[in-house]
Write a structure and sequence with these properties.
The chain has 373 residues and is an alpha/beta fold. The chain folds into 2 domains: 213 residues, Rossmann fold (3-Layer(aba) Sandwich); 129 residues, Rossmann fold. 44% of the residues lie in helices and 13% in strands. The strands form 2 sheets. It has a 6-stranded mixed beta sheet, with helices on both faces. Helix 8 packs across helix 10 and helix 11 crosses helix 12. The protein starts with a helix and ends with a helix. The structure holds pyridoxal-5'-phosphate (PLP).
Length: 373
C-alpha cells in the first residue's frame, strides 16, 4: 500500500488512485559529487526511475489525476505545457496506458533536442497535438491559449458530444500535488529504515510548483524537518511564494476535508525558500551554470540531468555548497527528470507526420547551449 494510505486509511477509500509508477524510487549517496562539492552527506532521490517507460516527477501526480479522470468516466484528457513539455508527454503515455485519449495544448518554447524527442513520443502515443499561444513570457500568451483552447473544445464537443477532462499545466492541481505529499511519506520510510539520514535541505526544480508544494506539505505531515529549496525555472509571475502557499493550503484543505485526521497546518513566507537566480529570461532557456552542473553530475556520477530543470536545481545546490552553508548537512537533490530511454520507439518516426506547426522544431537549430555540452 502507498505510504500516504497506510498512514491515512480513510484517504484510500476517498481518493481515486491508479498505480502507474515503480515506487519507492531509490535514494543513493553521491560520493564523488559530494567530495567535489565539499558536502559529505549528499544524496539523490531517483525519481528519474519512477516509471517503466517514462519516469521523472510526473507519474506521481498522474496516479491521482488519472485515477480521478477514470472515476469520473472521462474518455479524453486535455492538458497544457511547452512544446517539449515532459508533463504533456507523461500524460500522453499514461493516459493511453489506462485507456484514455490525450489532447495537448502546447506553447512555443526555446528549441532543444528533447523538444523533438518529446514531440515524436507524444505523437507515437497517439496524443492530439496543438501549438498555441505566444510563449510563457509573452503578455499575449494566455489570451491566445484561451482562444485556441475554446476553439478545440467546441470542435471536440461537436464531434464527440462531451468535453475532455482537464488536467492542470504540470499536473499541479491539489490532486496532483497529493502525489508529492505521498512522496514525503515514502521518504520518511527510507529515513526510518536508515537508507538515508533525515535531509536538512531538499533541492528541487520548480516550474508549476506542484512538486515543491507537495514535498513542503508532506514533510510537515510526515514529521520530517527538512527545508525544501525550490529552484525556479519560470518567471516570478508563475513561481512565487504566495502562489506556492496557496497551492499548499488548497491541497491541505482537500486532504483535511477527505479525512479530518489529516491535520491542517499553517504555512507562512518563512516556510518557503524559492531561488530565482538560476532562471534566465525565458522558460526552457539553458544557462551556463545549469549546463556546468549537468556536466559535473555526468562526470562524477553518470546520472543525466537537463538544462530546463534539474541542471538549474543542481546549480543552486552547487552555489550554496561553495558558500559553505551546506557543510556537515545532509542534503538531498530530488531528481525530477525522466531517465528512461525511449529512443527505440521513435527512431523510425518522421517529423513530417506531426502537425505542420511543429516542424520548425526539427528544421530550426536548437539553442546554442544544447549543442555545446
Ligand atoms: C515538470 C518538471 C519539473 C517541475 O515540476 P513542478 O511540479 O511543475 O514544479 C521539474 N523537473 C522536471 C524534469 C520536470 O519535467
Amino acid at each position: 500500500m502507498i505510504p500516504l494510505f497506510e498512514q491515512y486509511p480513510l484517504l484510500r477509500e476517498k481518493l481515486a488512485y491508479v498505480p502507474l509508477g515503480e515506487f519507492p524510487t531509490p535514494v543513493q549517496k553521491l560520493e564523488q559529487l559530494g567530495a567535489e562539492l565539499g558536502v559529505s552527506q549528499l544524496y539523490i532521490k531517483r525519481d528519474d526511475l519512477s516509471g517503466k517507460v517514462y519516469g521523472g516527477n510526473k507519474p506521481r501526480k498522474l496516479e491521482f489525476i488519472l485515477g480521478n479522470a477514470l472515476r469520473s468516466k472521462a474518455k479524453e484528457v486535455m492538458t497544457f505545457g511547452g512544446a517539449g513539455s515532459n508533463h504533456a508527454l507523461a500524460t500522453a503515455i499514461y493516459a493511453r496506458q489506462v485507456g484514455l485519449k490525450s489532447i495537448s495544448m502546447l506553447m512555443p518554447q526555446p528549441n532543444a533536442r528533447y523538444v523533438r524527442r518529446n514531440l515524436l513520443m507524444s505523437h507515437y502515443c497517439g496524443a492530439e497535438l496543438h501549438l498555441c499561444g505566444a510563449g510563457l513570457e509573452s503578455v499575449r500568451n494566455m489570451p491566445l491559449v484561451y482562444a485556441a483552447t475554446t476553439y478545440q473544445l467546441l470542435r471536440h464537443r461537436l464531434k464527440k458530444g462531451h468535453l475532455p477532462h482537464f488536467i492542470s499545466p504540470g499536473g499541479s492541481s491539489p490532486l496532483g500535488v497529493i502525489g508529492f505529499v505521498n512522496a514525503a511519506f515514502e521518504l520518511r520510510r527510507q529515513v526510518t529504515s536508515g537508507e538515508i539520514p533525515e535531509p536538512e535541505y531538499i533541492y528541487v526544480a520548480c516550474g508549476t510548483m506542484g512538486t515543491a508544494a507537495g514535498l513542503t506539505l508532506g514533510l510537515r505531515a510526515a514529521n520530517l524537518g527538512g527545508r525544501v529549496v525550490s529552484v525556479g525555472v519560470c518567471s516570478k509571475k508563475i513561481v512565487n511564494t504566495s502562489a506556492m502557499i496557496k497551492l499548499i493550503s488548497k491541497t491541505n484543505c482537500l486532504l483535511h476535508s477527505l479525512d479530518a485526521s489529516f491535520p491542517k497546518f499553517e504555512f507562512s513566507e518563512t516556510d518557503i525558500d524559492i531561488r530565482h537566480d538560476y532562471f534566465d529570461k525565458r522558460y526552457a532557456l539553458f544557462t551556463d551554470e545549469g549546463m556546468e552542473a549537468v556536466s559535473l553530475m555526468r562526470e562524477c556520477e553518470g546520472i543525466k540531468l537537463d538544462g530546463t530543470y534539474t541542471g538549474k536545481a543542481l546549480a543552486a545546490l552547487k552555489h550554496d555548497a561553495k558558500s559553505g552553508s551546506l557543510r556537515g548537512k545532509a542534503v538531498l537533490l530530488w531528481n525530477t527528470l525522466n531517465s528512461k530511454d525511449f529512443s527505440d520507439a521513435i527512431s523510425d518516426l518522421d517529423y513530417h507526420d506531426l502537425p505542420r506547426c511543429f516542424h520548425r522544431y526539427f528544421e530550426e537549430e536548437v539553442q546554442p547551449l544544447d549543442r555545446d555540452y
